[in-house]
Amino acid sequence: MSKFPKDFLWGGAVAANQCEGAYNEDGKGLSIQDIIPHGIKGPISEEPTSDNMKLVGIDFYHRYKEDIKLLAGMGFKVFRTSIAWSRIFPKGDEKEPNEKGLQFYDDLFDECRKYGMEPLVTISHYETPLHLAKEYDGWRSRKLIGFYENYVRTIFTRYKDKVKYWLTFNEINSVLHAPLMSGGIYTPKEELTINDLLQAAHHELVASALATKIGHEINPEFKIGCMVIAMPIYPLTPNPDDVIKMMESDHENLLFTDVHVRGKYPNYVKRILSKMGGEIKMEPGDEEILKNTVDFISFSYYMSICESAKPAAKGEGNLLGGVANPHLESSDWGWQIDPKGLRYVLNTMYDRYQKPLFIVENGLGAVDQLITDENGNKTVDDTYRINYLKKHIEQIAEAIEDGVELMGYTTWGCIDLVSASTAELKKRYGFIYVDRNDDGSGSLERYKKKSYDWYKKVIESNGEDLSI
Fold first, then answer.
1. Which residue among the candidates 204, 252, 361, 398 is catalytic per the annotation?
2. Which cellular components does GO assign to this protein (predicted)?
3. Has 127 been annotated as catalytic?
4. Domain with 313 in it: what CATH number?
């Protein structure tokens, strides 16, 4: 008997800004991604530039039927994607939506359902309309709650019979660390105070709770979740000072899920605010809106970190900071690989909230080499990716045996796409290789990697057969 529930949702995940391309077609407005050509740490450009790989992505906008068919060939039960806000409202603050944008997602969701694949849709995935960033400084402005409300009412009403599973914001807890990408905040990070960031986070939390309320009114069958970066934090040593440092770092992360699930700010926030010299300005009605709690908790999982009262060298690539763990290996991009950390975080999160969980991102970014096999077919021997996923799925099975209620698992970048953190295509995650390179060359042809047939077997056996 498989350890996984019979209705477990196996699948994969992408984001509109990293795969669609067609950045200025059919009435789409610019998003913040169109002026960030080099990822999180790179400079902003005033206009889209030809070195921005996301302007073309993998041309999913024109090739989605081919791609959905390939994903369906693995037996996907669910496909996570996002709606590009600026396809629906090009500037973000219009009253009326762009019909061509709405129609594209109608067609995409129809294609998914044709193969029996449930869409899992992220409403805002690191792609705030550029106009909202420049004109209002993104989520620093309370006005964005109203613009977001208009957007969610539009898409909830339009797709109420096509989409059941929704996520309000992607990795919402990242707004404190990547304010432009996560919160559309145009002011440079170094000029922002902790007050600015906490207030922007509050606006997003209110908007998220409001979306949950609206969604349940439009279709009571909707399942609406939050989405956070889940990253277990270990003390670097048994020194109690390191343990306290770990607890404090964990609180900064957990406050986002606490609000989403419990409907109010946790008591420890008062101490965080006191320590940081910050405050959160609440408007009348905010506390009542926050009581609209999510149906489930979804999260990304790539790594764990350590914390120390006396920090050593920081771990490369760790968006939320932290100290490198001397007991773990790292990926090519410095992300520490910790399969058992996934079991740990599943248990701790489920113990804390007693809500269904959903792993919506997990995967290995690597430099893949396209080869020709003995049958003359182009492919990638990505046994390293299979090993990574196998070890994580084994730990998911352990967590389910521990009693964790888990809805599903969608691997990140199930078809190669442009990296969010570095804006590279050479950092590949997919089961399907896309022939496009960082210099813009390539045919955009799709080729199945070795991991394609492996993941197909995993899904067919409902997680029972992980053999390589």
1. 361
2. cytosol
3. no
4. 3.20.20.80
